[in-house]
Amino acid sequence: MAPIQILKLQNTFKPGGKVFEVERAAAEHSGLVQMLLQDFDDSDLEAIIPISVDVSDKGLAKVFEWMTHSKDLPKTTDDGSVRGPDDSAVNWKPLTFSDWDKKFFDALDSEALYEILIAANYLDIKPLYELGCQFVANMIRGKTTEQIREILNITSDFNPEEELRIREQKALVKDESETAEKN
Amino acid sequence: MWGPGGLSCIIRFICHVPTGFAGINGLITYNNVRGLGDILNVIPHGAEFVRGLSYVGRAGTATFAWNFFQFAVSPFLRGNLLAITGLVDLALAGLLVAGVVLERRFLPGTFSGCNGASNWNNATDGRNFFVVANGTDAFGSDGPNSICHNIVQIWVMAIVVIILYLLCGVFNILLGFGGVAHSGPGSRTAFGLPPQYDIDLFGWMFGPLRCLLKPVVYVYKHLRASLYFACRYVSKYMSRKKKLTLRPTKHLRPPKNAKGESGNHGGPRLPLELAIMIVRELHYADLVNLSRSSKALRAVFFGSRSPEQAMKDLRPFVCGGEISCARCAVCKIQICPGCEHRALIPLSGAFRHLRACRPACSRCFYKNHCVQRVTPADYARARGSSTRRQFDPSWVSELRRYFQWARQRFRSSRNVETNSVGAYDVLDEAICQNCATLWRREMLAEVEAESLRELQLVAGRKLACFRCRTPLTGVRWWVDMKGWECKWDGHPGWAPAT
């Protein structure tokens, strides 16, 4: 059995970023890490891999938590193919929420969710940002404005004039679409 | 074969007894009174009284005979013949009116007035008409009060006949002339009969009369139309500066101290590819709700610089990426089969005007809506060729809407609690998920506000006359579906200055 390789990753966007230790198998979910590793020798793995994304350490920790838990899931390589845990080619299947994923995303507040999406997009973790987007869409779909505010625990910061402007913009959209249809 | 004279027949049936009573008794009384000698020359209004008795007696008897004859004939009359019958009815009623008025000069107007008949309107030589009449064999010997009572009874019956005959005459004239002039109620065709069987014996008489009256009618129509046109033009000219004001509903009205956007929300924005990935799973109504939830959240999804533009950019990706032409009937946003709801939406006043009223130029308006009334549907039919009917989507859609409404009414009658609608003021339309949650009153307010907004957009555009297609500059006239001028203040009466 091959020894477990640990990678050290640090967010250098702000000074004093925390160094995270992540299993290589988990870190390879990230297209960015895969690309960086191509330039590293095995002897260089002890070095800290710098990443630069405008996300807090807390948010990044959540991302690495998900990566560690999902290390056995198929990974997308930089050539677009999908590889299984034993590095064999597998067919890509759309991801579905596991029970763990549901608990993971349910526990996040809106700020953490936003940071995970930003970080997943930066690190190019396709399964994570796909699941995140799916989760956000599920949260919004079919909900009224008040329900969205309630779910995300936010309050309206519009004044009445702005509310009126937003309503009027619907008429504008309609008008433009009609013009396009005529053309 | 019953015609429009059926109503006349019914009235005549009711008139049989009163006309017979008033006519025959009136004639007998007249003959008896004439035999009283010179007292008629000395009592107040004696000559007029006798003349009144003569009119009531003779005209009443003639009316009785006419009534009897017409009772059998009038059910089959129509057209000019019925109208002439009506004129005869009115003439007879006029004679009776004259008689009744003349009689009233001498007689007491009530039965109670006869209680002192022996002292009523004594002659200049001190004699009393009723006392003298009581002394003759012709009137019997029941006393002066009884004679007075009998004569007043004939007088009252004559009044009853007058009322019934006035009604009968007016109805006959209206139904008769109306039946000839058009094919509406009262015409032969309205009774399910073919028009070629109309009996129009006196039509030759009315032809020349119409020719004689034509210039008078022409002058009258144009004078009336010119006056109306001038008044309306002045009214529109005086209010041309007045802009169409939106009447926003209570929840839309901004406070007086609101000044632009407040706060700084220049925070990070979600990468576009992620935003697209999210909105692919949403419908347009979700996007609207998202943008209205909070300024901060809107900035995350759509940015803070131009969220409206970002929303428009993302619009092609919503509803599964299908470009949908369907719109919510209430708030007009994009809907797709996946997010539409069917509901009965209330029609606001503005909505009706938006759909029904059309702009016209001064010339067409004066010609077709002041001098005479031509409906837009008539105009559309006239433009089509005789062999090929022009497709008129307005009446087709009206018909379709009516059947939709009728279907909903039928359904609602079976389920009153969920779909109770009172009148033809709802449409079964596709609406978005947001509008589906509104109460009827809120929905009506939304429809009203949306229609007013659309009217304001229309008011700012260049319009053409719906008849001659001339671009409208200056005054704008609005015509409704019935061909009348629509005076609703929501229609701009003057073209905007360019």
UniProtKB/TrEMBL annotation, chain A:
Cited Gene3D superfamilies: Potassium Channel Kv1.1, Chain A
Q: Which InterPro entries match?
A: SKP1, SKP1-like, SKP1-like_dim_sf, SKP1/BTB/POZ_sf, Skp1_comp_dimer, Skp1_comp_POZ
Q: In which pathway does it act?
A: Protein modification; protein ubiquitination
Domain called SKP1 component dimerisation: residue spans: 126-171
The protein's superkingdom reads: Eukaryota
What do we know about how this protein assembles, alone or with others? Answer: Component of the SCF (SKP1-CUL1-F-box protein) E3 ubiquitin ligase complexes.
What the record says about family reads: Belongs to the SKP1 family.
Put simply, this protein is called: E3 ubiquitin ligase complex SCF subunit
Biological source species: Thermothielavioides terrestris (strain ATCC 38088 / NRRL 8126) (Thielavia terrestris)
UniProtKB/TrEMBL annotation, chain B:
The species is Thermothielavioides terrestris (strain ATCC 38088 / NRRL 8126) (Thielavia terrestris)
Per the record's keyword annotation, is Transmembrane included, yes or no? yes
The record's keywords, sorted A to Z, are: Membrane, Transmembrane, Transmembrane helix
Q: F-box domain location, by residue?
A: 269-300
- State what protein this is by name: F-box domain-containing protein
Pfam families the UniProt entry points to: F-box
Transmembrane domains' residue ranges: 81-102, 154-181
